[in-house]
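Filed under: proteins

Residues; backbone shape codes:
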Amino acid sequence: MSQSACPDVRAARLSADAYAERFGDAVPALTAMQAVIEAERCLYCHDAPCQQACPTGIDVPSFIRRIADGNLRGAAEAILDANPLGGMCARVCPTEELCEAVCVRQTQQGKAIEIGRLQRHAVDAVMADGARPVFTRAATTGRHVAVVGAGPAGLACAHTLARLGHDVTIYDAHAKPGGLNEYGLATYKTAGDFARREVDWLLSIGGITIEPGHKLSEPAQLSTLQAQHDAVFIGVGLAGTRSLGLQGDAELAGVMDAVNFIAGLRQAASPAEVPVGRRVVVIGGGMTAVDAAVQARLLGAEVVTMVYRRGPEAMSASVVEQQWAQTQGVTIRHGLSPEALVGEAGHVTGVRFVGTADPQHTEFFEADMVLKAIGQTFVSSPWAEAGLAMTEGRLQVDAQCRTSLPGVWAGGDCRAGGRDLTVEAVEDGKQAALGIHAFFQTES
């Protein structure tokens, strides 16, 4: 084997100072003065296309006006009333494709109001001031709801139900709550352990209990939850990952799912503990692929190549995310599909690709590490066996997030028809909670 093909995967490639610099906030927080100046650019439109474009319906002009007036608490209340995970969504939402894309300033001047950064400014200010809760619970109703999954949908559902006076128990398979926010997002998007701090804020309203390490794997477990609670919400997300279907996918060292790579980095005490290859190939074209590729570079990988089978216009990662990857030193190649994993002595040494438009065209990329980001899937068991209707491999729900089983609601990435966005998962959880509350009132 040539020297160039020798696998080189190791931790601690950089100095401690380099890690601290590379894994800080990718987008710095606004200063108080910057926030006021940016807020004063807003036209406070009456028909507010930005609000209409927000999946959670945040009253954007209202909260921005309050920032301009110096009323950060009022701004945060307007945000969190519509979106209880407004702090995280301010960091990870593709605002350039949602609210900011339709901002009047964008159409007039080519520069939208920085809605996401203003939203973060207000929410962070209030969460830093833990003395006074933003919301208080209504009188206890005596109703108890089971929420399965402590991700964005489950947390939004639980918080909304708790505000309405209902008691909630969240059952989650992981050791820590947060779901995607805790385990699946790039660390530079959620620096300062923000995911945990946001969960702490959500739970501070009271009435919510979390049961970690509780995985539902049998249909009878859902029946038990139905018998023990007045309603059930399912927000389990996408727990499965797609296989490349190539020999060596599961056997070769150095080949792993990008979601596991990201989770390992998120849960490490320090980035210096996380091994990374000198040459990394990331297969996929979505946000997970970008997060994995950029973080591999930040960990010290010298060559990171992100390979996607279609053109740039078909990538699910936003244009901004693609540009971010490239500015961080990631090379993006299009129109190539993986044909074979190449390895030696049990470790991957490269990937051979074939052109999707021209099958005669092949390319080989040396790699010490291959990260698969080709999509996550919904694990239908035990839900299908329990009688829940499915559509296109996910749970079928109506406009109020009701499933085919009475007393059972579902939302987030596990339900059919969504765009797999954190902000949409939050809206599902909120709407399901309102639906459950209305259901309880009809039973009264």
